[in-house]
# Entry
Amino acid sequence: MRIIFFAGKGGVGKTSVAAATGIKSAELGKRTVIMSLDIAHSLSDIFDLGKDLLDQNKGKPIQIKKKLWIQELDIHEEMKTYWGDIHKYLSSLLNTTGLDEVLAEELAILPGMEEVSLLLYINKYVHEKKFDVILLDCAPTGESLRFISIPTTLEWYMKKIFKLERTMVKYLRPVAKRVYDVPLPGDDYFQAIEDLFERLKGVDRILMDPEITTVRLVTNPEKVVLKETQRAFMYFCLYRMNIDAMIMNRILPADLKDSYFVNWLEGQKRRLEDARDYFDPIPIFAVNQFRGEIIGYDSLKQLADQIYENENPLQRFYKEEPYTLSKVDGGYCLKLKLPFIMQKDVELNKFIDELIVRIGGFKRHIMLPRQVASLDHVKAKLKKQYLHIYFEGENHG
Ligand SMILES: Nc1ncnc2c1ncn2[C@@H]1O[C@H](COP(=O)(O)OP(=O)(O)O)[C@@H](O)[C@H]1O
Ligand SMILES: [Mg+2]
# Structure
């Protein structure tokens, strides 16, 4: 089993690169599905297929070549299949105003339904062994980051909030009926969430297992794009996902003679050097700007040859783990690879058995193993690209 995410800013070439990789993978004889997480699906356009074909297919995988499938999720279909009772409740909730703030906040933690549907598919495909390779054409950076945070957020939600909420509602319902117009969730809603969680079980382990899942960041030699790539890089590390290659797309051919392009060529050269500084030692695959748009099987295949040359696109190109927990003198050390941050940007909070790492607007809940959770003293140090979090103190577990 192999899962590869293609992520990056809008327009950098994620869909093209994912599609090209799919072609190579299928030609190697692997049953390959390319799934799109981008609401603005464009897989079918890039393969130059009729839109009707996919519309009729209602979001299921469609075979386009020997061993090659594409799938563009149809959220309306997903809603019918997986979200019935949850959706019913949430809609009635949204129709009501004046909801108690705390309850509203906790309910709002329910993450994006599209993204969860996708996780359900990944889990299903992995367990049914329907495909050998799943390639994910991600939404632009911001949204795909929400996607990767879902398994840990859900785990936290089920552990900390769900039971409390269920009990609360049980006692509140008789009172609330008389006092408020706010609909409280019924048992169907809770059952539906529980079922959903059951079906998602294990997907976080799949995504964090570098033997199975890696991320490839697609980028361009431009300042603004590279900035966003750095951010994405750091967040994927925070969520413990392995980045095994960078795809530097749309490099202008160096032999361009036209004076119009002089500044572009100069600028790109500098950005390429920057990128090497930033991402070293992760390999960077360079891809030229093509003469025209990349559409259809043959030009995608050309793209694939440029990216991977004769290498197997399914190998793990870079193997270092971004995340380790080890025993040190007097306690434990959790080492997170978090390049491009400053110590002052990091905020740590520990509540009993969970650690909350906050970096800017982002936070991650990390569930701690028991022997670590029982140590009260937490401090962090940034050393080069790694955040070292030390847990020390009396062990009273
Ligand atoms: N190396 C390239 N040379 C020329 N055109 C490219 C190249 N890479 C991508 N494109 C074109 O750029 C557009 C955006 O690419 P796409 O893969 O859809 O980006 P994303 O999925 O990241 O939004 C498409 O029209 C695609 O054909
Ligand atoms: Mg795209």
Q: What stands out?
A: DSSP finds 14 helices and 15 strands in the chain. The domain at 323-392 is CATH 2.60.40.790 (Immunoglobulin-like). The CA atoms of residues 61 and 71 lie 4 Å apart.
